[in-house]
Amino acid sequence: MNLESLQREMAAAVMQPLTADEQMRLHAADGRAMSDIAASFIAPNSRLNAFERLEIYNRQYWFRVLGALAEDFAALNAVIGSRAFDRLSIDYLSAHPSRSFTLRNLGSQLPEWLAAHPSYAGRRHRLAVDVARIEWAFIQAFDSAEREPLTLDQIATLDADSRLALQPHVQLIALDYPADDLVLNLHKREKRQASEAGVRQEDPPEHPAKMPRLRLRPTWVAAHRVELSVYYRRLQREEFLTLSAIAQGAPLADAITTGFADSRLSELRRAQCIREWFATWAELGWICAPELESLF
Amino acid sequence: MKNQLNALLLTAALTGLVGGTSVAAHAATQPSPSAHSAKVMKAGLRYSGTNAADDKHSCKGKNDCKGQGGCKSSDNGCKGKNSCKGKGGCATDGSKMPKAI
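ok -> structure tokens follow
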């Protein structure tokens, strides 16, 4: 067995889901006995046979990735309940195993994956997708890059055809529900419970958390970072559309036109809004010059 | 008429950019609690526990320092089995953890 085959065999064994009682499965997906697979590249020691030694890595992989995902999506866990969340986590991580050097990226596909797999959240499916999107946006806002905001000298050169860019840490989210407050409250509750429990790690409730009834209401949010903290800022629909167009590289005048497509705001109000929004975005450092490579 | 409106909106955007950038530049050169709080008020709602100064584990769960709590599953797979010793999976004593799996 060459090194690449060995690595693939090991990875497949380690990433294979555990049994219901958290043991290594007896057989691989292709039907081979795991004891034979383990024995083909792992030597036993005085206490553990090859299967048991491989099982340690198999279990550690799953405990680690499941724990990491539960930390990153604590509100989703509360919304659908830990029993459904555990099932969702195993199925999601089987479809999208860790491929990165960092666990930070583990949930990168979860919002899209959950949107395509409605069975895990039942009647709360759309809410669950919103919550997952907010929690993933938080992770991106927390550690994405921060570039130099636009300077006054650069602003002096702008015209209708100028293209701008957003700070990489500004994450724009369009939601079906006003779920941002819910996520903030669930995270606060989780933090309070963790603090009250001290070092003791309490398992989250198996059943979905009781929560105020949310009505479907399109909501637009930006998750972003100020110094070392992440904030959620509600946006108006037109504001969201203008920012999205800027982020997609539309010329400034086109971005503004896009923002007000189908808008009911009066012309005077539009001018007021635009001035206020751009002032706030500039004050928060959201607007940058586009990176050179994006212009070609 | 439409061109006039577009010109008005473009002017409004540039005016806003100049105003906001000036405020930010002023706050950066003369940092004061009021300037900081004005920015924070515009930032929206703060996500709980993400300020590094508040929480020594502020990066827990958000970065590649994940796993600082050691074995966090209720059934610790490494408990009592020593094959994982020295690989960081069981560290709960502040010793360095591997940064990646």
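The first helix of chain A runs from residue 3 to 15.
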